[in-house]
Amino acid sequence: MINLIRAELRKYTSTRLSWSMPLAMAVLGGIFAALQGLFLVVIGEIPTQDGSVIRPAENFSDLMLARMVYSGGIQIGYLLALVLGILAMSGEFRHKTITSALLAAPRRGQLISAKVAALVLVVLLNALAFISGSLLGGGAMLAVGDAALLPEPGLLLGTLVRMALVLVLWGLIGFGLGVLIPNQVVALFVGVGITLLVEPLLGYGLTFVEQIKDAAKFFPSQASMSTLDLFAGVDQDTAQQLGSADPLTWWVAALTLLAYATVMTLLGWFVTTRRDVG
Asked: 127, 179, 204, 227: which has the fewest Cβ within 10 Å?
């Protein structure tokens, strides 16, 4: 099993993805965190849904401000993690290496387990790059706005750890999708399309249906944001103005996201152990 994990990690380190993806994670994390910091701290005004303006420096604690700035690029972060997960399996089908991989590891369950373990390590590495970039970019804007860089370090660290958890779980979701849709281009198109377009539109549409409007809180993207618990301590009126009224508690949201990742990973395992790749 250890040898299989090493082999999977060697596949990753032998491609340009091993340096280009962490670099993209760091750069994009820094850019989006800096933009978030620019609007929240330097400009210091947030337009709300009802047309009013919230001034973060006056309404938010130092901790909440830092959380919001450093997590400014989390959407692009979990989108890239999803892509990593898709490539981890669909690449085998695209490059016709799945047959040789199964010949080297005829017990398909072991191969899938090794791929999942290697993917978790790879996404964690990329998550560290993403968080490092976010700290640099967001920290620069916090410094310009004369705001605290590391308020309540223990609680802020908890948010950063949950950011890494969100990225890992999205990577596993992508892994399952890459198995279910062997065509890499189609899998990427479907994964990115659902995440960026279908899910937000569907979630918005559900808000107009009273009986099921709360279902949107359990969608992966909204569960991801709730996991970070960015608006902890904010009064209900302010949270509603920011479009985050009555979110899931962070641990329920994390379990919801874990459920998506578990289902997709198990589907990937089930399909791979029964698919004819001859």
From this structure: 204
